[in-house]
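Whether sequence alone determines local backbone shape is best considered at the level of individual chains. In the encoding step, the backbone of a single protein was reduced to a row of integers, each denoting a local shape. For completeness, the protein is quoted in full, as a sequence line and a line of structure tokens.
***
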Amino acid sequence: MKVIASSLRKGNVVDMNGQLYVVLKAENFHPGKGTPTTSVDMRRISDGVKTSERWKTTEQVEKADVDEREYDFLYEDGEGYHFMNPESFEQVTATADVVGDAAPFLEPGMRVYLQTFESIPISIELPARITVEVTETEPVVKGQTASSSYKPAMTNIGVRVMVPPHIGVETRIVINTADNSYYERAKD
């Protein structure tokens, strides 16, 4: 299926010269003068080689047809990250390359979207937000307003997040998985 280059997003699979590539990062550039372009960082599925491409935003790119379904994360071991299809109970194993930055967020039982090609996982999509607990941060200062000044905090999953000054240790917070940013204090 042909799509315009500017519509490519992280996790899409592109067919170039008979090889399949998974998109790791896609950015659109609109210079003041000249042609708008789309810069895409990709990883070849067959051997894991990373490459970058730049297209005009209106150029046609062949998007491969992949299977995207919900899977439950089971566990991680020396072989990789194991997931199970909740409907068929079929299990698949994703490599550390495929999971990448999502690894710290994975907890047993978590439901994620896996894109597979010929039953091989090629990309993972986490829930948009998850709840974590702050394990260390600077102490709360009385009278400090919740202005735009944020402070660093470490979470129980090992991810560093910038939080408002009123957030203390053992506070449960909701973070965006896309960019590890603070969303809100957890309601539970």
In short: The chain is about 0% helix and 50% strand. The longest helix spans residues 96-99. The chain has three domains: 2-62, 67-125, 129-185.
